[in-house]
Structure formats: C-alpha cells, structure tokens
Amino acid sequence: MLTKTYNQIGEELAQTRLPSEIFDVKMDTDLVHQVAVAQMSNRRQVSAHTKDRGEVRGGGKKPWRQKGTGRARHGSRRSPLWKGGGVTFGPTKERNFKKKINQKMGRKALLMVLSAKVKSGTLIILDSLKIEKLKTKLMADVLSKLPCKEQSCLIALSSMDKDVIASARNLAKVQTRQAKDLNVLDLLNTKYLIVPKDAIKVIKETFSK
C-alpha cells in the first residue's frame, strides 16, 4: 500500500509503502466502539463523594432520652433524617468504572482505526520531523503547511523528542504520543494522524505481533 509523503514545508515527495498488516485491516465498528468505551471508562476519574453517617461529624451522644419527651426517638445526629447527617446511597469514591479489554482486541481495534485513517486520507506521512529549537511558533508553521492545517491532529513520534513535544504542547488541537503508545481513543478524538517515516517501523514492531 502506497501513500503520499511530505516534507516539513508541505512538498510532496516519493510515496511510502505501508505494511498492509497494519494499515489495511477491515473495519469492525462494533469492536472499535467496545474498545473506545472501555478506554473512556478506564480514564474516568471518580471525584464525586458524599459522606455516609459513619463519616460525618458529631453524633456521639443520643439527642434526647428514649421515652417521655413526646418526640420521636433518635439515636444519633448523624442519621440521614437530620440536617447535616449522612447521605443515603450517595456517590462515593469507592465506585469502580474499570473495564477489561483483551490485548488482542485492543490491538485489532487500533489497526482498524489506523487503516481507516489511510482510507479517509487523514494519515500524513513525513520524511522527518525536526524542530531547530523549542518554540511553539516553529511547530505551528510546520503544521500550517501540511494538509491538516489548523484541524486537530495527533503526532506519533518514534521516540521521546522533548523539543517536538514541548513545542506542540501549547497548540490547542495538537497532541503528541510515542508511536508505541498509540491507542484507539486518541486516534478517534483527532482528525489527522501525522507519522514520521521512522515511526512506521516502531508501529509495526509494536502492534504486528
């Protein structure tokens, strides 16, 4: 499978041959949806927490004696019936939203999304990606000359390139990942995938097992 290759100034170069076992996989939308939902659940942070009657303050003493007052009996001010008491069946930090996805399923779904990027023309192959110095404007200039323009994109790097990562950090619609860490959710959340040629080998070695 051949696809267009660009340099950093947006010029088309000779086409690059992509491994068909990675970039030519038949789509199964049900599997991709299942993996994407699982990844969203696994990223979910549990922040809402209400205190039950064992966590709220007070309640060590019985409010009034059991009999003879004419009022209803109560044993603690921490009862959910009282203002300032515990909350019954409220959300707690102990909730677990984790979903398990088999490694083979996750890998297969990733290959399907990568293949869809090729078929839709939203995969951009670069001969190389180098930033002279850590500067956001330099990265913005590179992206403005590529087909992605100002649209959302994910840059897959062959290794940890701190200059590229830091230069892209302040660009609103740009994400960076190492090629070995690509995942379905990030690919679905961005329209374009930018892959330097040296990262193709990393993708093949990581996901073609």
UniProtKB/TrEMBL annotation:
Gene3D superfamilies: 3.40.1370.10. Residues 59-77 have a biased composition (Basic residues). Residues 49-58 have a biased composition (Basic and acidic residues). The keyword Ribosomal protein applies. Pfam families: Ribosomal_L4. Keywords: Ribonucleoprotein, Ribosomal protein, RNA-binding, rRNA-binding. Residues 42-87 are annotated as: Disordered. GO terms for cellular component: ribonucleoprotein complex; ribosome. The keyword Signal does not apply. Part of the 50S ribosomal subunit. Belongs to the universal ribosomal protein uL4 family. PANTHER family: 50S RIBOSOMAL PROTEIN L4, LARGE RIBOSOMAL SUBUNIT PROTEIN UL4M. Forms part of the polypeptide exit tunnel. This is Large ribosomal subunit protein uL4.
